[in-house]
Amino acid sequence: MGKQTWQRDWRKESVVYQIYPRSFFDASGDGIGDLKGIRQKLDYIKELGADIIWLCPIYKSPNHDNGYDISNYRDIMDEFGTMRDFDELLQDAHSLGIKIMLDLVVNHTSSEHPWFIESKKSKDNSYRDYYIWRDGKNGGPPNNWESFFSGPAWTYDDASKQYYLHLFEKNQPDLNWENPDVRAEIYDMMKWWLDKGVDGFRMDTINMLSKSPGLPDGKPILGTPYGDRNPYMMNGPRIHEFLQEMNREVLSRYDIISVGETPDVTPDDALLYVSPKRNELNMVFQFDHMGLDYEGLKWCDPVFDLVKLKKILSQWQIGLNGRGWNSLFWNNHDQPRVVSRFGNDGQYRVLSAKMLAVCLYMMQGTPYIYQGEELGMTNADFKSIKQYRDIETHNAYYEFTQNRSVAPEDMMRYLSKVSRDNARTPMQWDGTENAGFTKSVPWISVNSNYREINAEAERLDSDSVFNFYKTIIRLRKENPIIIYGDYELLMPEDKAVFAYLRRLENKTLLVACNFSENEQVLELPFDLSVGTAGAVGGVAEGAVAEGTARLLISNYQSVESGNVKSSRIKSGAALRPYEAVCWIVEGK
Q: What integer pLDDT is reported at residue 563 of this predicted model?
């Protein structure tokens, strides 16, 4: 082993498991997941190998947006339990060596938060400036911004004759981060949770805190009454000042993990958030790869382009290498299921789910695995708009069918592919009624394929997606090259194969993934000698000058992975449908 050139960090070496509490496990029997349910499933998360649990919002909320509208930052949502339930969950998780990361939602609150209730009372109320209030313009809202959830981003208050800003739903008024009292309140709340023992924060829409002065109109968007708001409410003029203040006042005082949700950032933008020299965040979530299959408009028939995916992921791997840190994710509570999106959820569901895991989680960055992803859970199979619960989905359905001349059947097809509720159906624990999620009527329908796809069956099946994820997580912990190695893309223009190299000291990792149901050719710029062991853990004797290769992992059970039958991995080797292979080369 050569000289170590990388510095270890527990945040980089961890694997995060994201839980959407409402849909994880219902211990109380009311059809809604809860904290006691999570506590009962900690052994499952430990078995998987995850180190950190990210909990979507658990705070007190009227649930207009499933908890992302918070009415009390220091209390627990009634459906989820009590603060004692949380304290017991935190204690049990820590006893298993699992950390807990909370969702920090501070761009906005609920309209039922005491601050906003006070703010609405009068223009001279001491809390008025906690939010963004403006006079109207030309008989309408202060500017032409559209809410992310459809309709104008402003709501008129009859009592005070002013509008308040809400980038999301009208019951989610934006906080005014220009007010130092707001920032002090937020920092105090963060310290309260950290002193309780939580291990960090995932920060919701954190790059939207700073809005451009004057809140100008956006450039008109063709075919709509709205303008492009993004240049004026993302990555704003004071965002880094705010985050450096947050780091100075809170984050730097604890050994925790901080990740910011930052839509609309480039790798260069991201470095302003995550460079260790700038003292802001540990890492960010970026969404370049989440928008590659639709151009500008989410509600459509997505078209997957592997060449684009390779370009996007590669620019992030290279752009942050040695200067910042990546988050690796396929799924979360806002995205459809990846096996239905970029894989094949029919005949090749298991193979493509495994392939997708190899492709992403062999890259540099901290993996974020969303509940059910490790089972290969698929998109929902809803037939009616009444089955959906997501406010964004409902708003979009009625907006597009009533105001934009989209046929209902077309809109339902779009929803089946991109609605956030695809990720929010209950976790599929076993083959009993309601997938073992609840003994009551679930708050949202269970996917009908739960008898075939569930945790109980997969834990017992050595060839399951679940056990494959366990292996990948173990390999990350055993091989520093997966975490810290440099990255090089191979075959950049190939429309079916995603292949790349990782290098660290005297080791090289070769990853090759077939994103199609047809056999594909692996075109390498070199050949690799193959060790006789041909499996995880074996290194052949008699390594040649260019190094000895051994198979690290494959999603096909055949030892002759990649149809490599000779003693060398050669250019021209065949990859079977949705095949994923990873070789590690040790030597010069």
A: 41
